[in-house]
Design goal:
This protein is of the alpha/beta class. It is built from 13 helices and 15 strands. The strands form three sheets. An eight-stranded mixed sheet has the order 5-6-4-1-7-9-10-8, sandwiched between helices. The chain has a five-stranded mixed sheet with strand order 12-11-13-14-15. β13 and β14 form a beta hairpin. It binds adenosine-5'-diphosphate (ADP) and ligand VHF. Adenosine-5'-diphosphate binds next to α2 and α9.
């Protein structure tokens, strides 16, 4: 089989997985749902609800992640462009979220379908107990036949604890909900090798490995979008780690995207997904402190996938407790891995640089066990 036909098989396999998935997350970007002059585009929203309803009737559980709160709040507040400061963004979101939820509710009511609004902060996903709460709410909405419409809880999220963009939120929700596919709908019809607004660019139909992204320039978003193409690529990587394939397509093609998936760019999921715990360590958890490693420990942990022992730690920073996630830094200060610390920072202070035989028996466990450790490079 030639390399070309191999990749053709890859194309149909990923798209078939997306088309056949029994649980999916569909994320709609602000750029597709709102405009600066017209505000919320209710006609577009109806078409999206039509496509989601059709897929649900075909037997798939669908969770919607809808951006657009800030975009929908701009005109009613008499603003003329997307605000930049946090307080005005939050004011716009508080006005716009009401309009957005109402529009989704009205649109799905055409089918007798009930909508549940789920507003999440990054903390709701970073803490494992909150994480389970969100999971239970989504599960119960599904079992009651309602469709969940998720957005970031913009009015309470501060700059430090934001998801940053809804592409990332959608990928985290896909993991949390055990979805088998993620569909990102935007104002662009797929991934191009460069920003299509800036001149000639070529559509990339399939991304099967990081090498397929060589030379791709992921530019910024439009006047209303948040992260541009860079945030979609990092969300696709995050979803791939959870074994979830991603389709990036235009919202105008939502019907095709949600039926055959024969449109846009398809990103393959990892064949071997990270365990739920390691996924959480790498992508979802908040980092509470840092461990500074010597060169030998970096090699053992990153290259050899071994547990981190106190002998290889030269310093610590931050106030963390056993069970918290910490960043592991190399001698140049670069983060090379993340892991769950087995000890409190206060206990670790007296253990630095000591080999296990110099420590009392209760302190001889690894500082970060290999099962709780994820390199940031792989
Ligand atoms: N390499 C690229 N391929 C496709 N689109 C790109 C690329 N680089 C930048 N873009 C721009 O990213 C925009 C989509 O991002 P964004 O505005 O954040 O969308 P959304 O609101 O759907 O999240 C598109 O309008 C497109 O012009
Ligand atoms: N929570 C924000 C969405 C921020 C965001 O990520 O927007 P987008 O890049 O359009 O998906 C809002 O509803 O306006």
């Amino acid at each position: 089989m030639t390399a070309e036909s191999d990749s053709a098989v890859g194309v149909s396999a990923t798209r078939a997985t997306i088309a056949d998935a029994k649980r999916i997350v569909v994320k709609i970007g602000s750029s597709a749902l709102t405009s600066l002059v017209g505000g919320l585009d209710v006609g577009r929203l109806d078409l999206l609800a039509d496509a989601v309803e059709a897929r649900m009737r075909a037997g798939t559980d669908v969770i919607v992640v809808s951006s657009g709160a800030i975009g929908a709040g701009i005109a009613p507040l008499g603003l003329t462009k997307r605000p930049r400061d946090l307080a005005t963004k939050q004011a716009a979101a508080s006005v716009g979220q009401l309009a957005l939820a109402h529009a989704w509710g009205t649109s799905f009511a055409r089918y007798g379908r009930t909508v549940g609004q789920v507003l999440l902060t990054a903390e709701d996903i970073a803490r494992r107990t909150n994480h389970r709460n969100a999971q239970r709410t989504l599960d119960r909405l599904r079992s009651l036949g309602a469709v969940a419409v998720v957005n970031e809880n913009d009015t309470v999220a501060t700059a430090e604890i934001r998801f940053g963009d809804n592409d990332r939120l959608a990928a985290l929700v896909a993991h949390l909900a055990g979805a088998e596919a993620l569909i990102l709908l935007s104002d662009v019809d797929g991934l191009y090798d460069g920003d299509p607004r800036k001149g000639h660019a070529v559509l990339i139909p399939e991304v099967n490995s990081p090498e397929d992204l060589d030379g791709v320039v992921a530019g910024s978003g439009g006047a209303l979008g948040t992260g541009g193409m860079a945030s979609k690529l990092s969300a696709a990587r995050l979803a791939a780690d959870a074994g979830v394939p991603v389709l990036l397509a235009a919202a105008a093609d939502a019907d095709v995207a949600l039926t055959t998936a024969h449109v846009g760019t398809a990103f393959a999921g990892r064949p071997v997904r990270l365990s739920s715990r390691r996924f959480w360590v790498r992508h979802a958890a908040d980092v509470q402190g840092d461990l500074h490693l010597d060169a030998g420990a970096v090699t053992a942990v990153v290259g050899g996938r071994r547990s981190l022992l106190s002998a290889g730690i030269t310093g610590i920073s931050g106030r963390f407790y056993g069970g918290d996630v910490v960043a592991l830094r190399d001698p140049d200060g670069l983060v090379v891995a993340r892991g769950v610390a087995a000890y409190d920072a206060s206990e670790l202070t007296g253990m630095l640089g000591k080999s296990s035989s110099d420590l009392s028996p209760e302190l001889q466990r690894p500082v970060v066990h290999a099962d709780d450790l994820v390199s940031v490079a792989t």
